[in-house]
């Protein structure tokens, strides 16, 4: 295949034996099965270098045309977190009282969520992830949601592997987040991720994940 763009050698990694590869992926899957969405956090601080390295890992995600259309805003300021909670609760209260269909509310009932979002203030860190669209100094991005979604998955995995608890929160609409975090209009909020340590008395819904046979198809 002819190429007329700059290239460089692909990184070479040691090739594992089949047994090593199976053992490695099995151990990783076992570790990730322990990941749960946490809504009750301690206020204990987390090492910001851990968060920075997790964002660095997230930024290795593939993206359409390598435009890398993401921005990660790490929020530790208590007043900004308070404003994030206030804005989210206002939108969520409207959602639960007026916007959500009964079918949607019924689906949420076993999880026990409501419009109250104290985790946005309690967690020592909140990461606001933005989609970066075309701006004065930004190129047109491609496959934005797919690209940012992959990056967020890597971010959550890295934070979990570091022993931190997370939650993904998507109040709707989210344009008000730009004002709270002083972000330009061409950056569009994608998700808020509280990061910290689970409270000692934290409880999670007794859910079960679908078994492998139900989600895997081999042809």
Automatic annotation (TrEMBL):
Domain of life assignment: Bacteria
Does the entry feature the keyword Zinc-finger, yes or no? no
Q: Which UniProt keywords apply?
A: Flavoprotein, FMN, Oxidoreductase
Q: Which organism is it from?
A: Nocardioides aestuarii
| Nitroreductase domain mapped to chain residues | 33-197
Q: What is this protein called?
A: Nitroreductase family protein
Recorded hits in InterPro entries, A to Z, give: Nitroreductase, Nitroreductase-like, Nitroreductase/BluB
Annotated region Disordered: the residues are 1-22
**Which Pfam family, giving just one, matches this sequence?**
Nitroreductase
Xref: CDD domains? iodotyrosine_dehalogenase (cd02144)
């Amino acid at each position: 295949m002819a190429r007329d763009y700059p290239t460089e050698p692909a990184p070479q990694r040691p090739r594992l034996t089949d047994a090593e590869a199976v053992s490695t992926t099995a151990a990783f899957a076992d570790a990730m099965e322990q990941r749960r969405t946490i809504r009750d956090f301690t206020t204990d601080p987390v090492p910001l270098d851990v968060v920075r390295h997790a964002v660095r890992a997230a930024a290795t995600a593939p993206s359409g045309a390598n435009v890398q259309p993401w921005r990660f805003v790490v929020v530790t300021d208590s007043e900004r977190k308070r404003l994030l909670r206030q804005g989210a609760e206002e939108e969520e209260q409207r959602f639960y009282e007026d916007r959500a269909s009964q079918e949607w509310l019924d689906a949420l009932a076993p999880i026990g969520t409501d419009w109250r979002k104290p985790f946005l203030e309690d967690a020592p860190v909140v990461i606001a992830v933005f989609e970066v669209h075309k701006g004065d100094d930004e190129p047109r991005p491609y496959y934005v949601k797919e690209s940012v979604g992959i990056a967020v998955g890597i971010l959550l995995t890295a934070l979990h592997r570091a022993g931190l608890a997370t939650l993904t929160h998507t109040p709707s609409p989210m344009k008000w987040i730009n004002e709270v975090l002083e972000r330009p209009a061409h950056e569009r909020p994608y998700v808020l991720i509280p990061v910290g340590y689970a409270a000692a008395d934290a409880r999670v819904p007794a859910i079960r994940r679908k078994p492998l046979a139900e989600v895997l198809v081999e042809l």
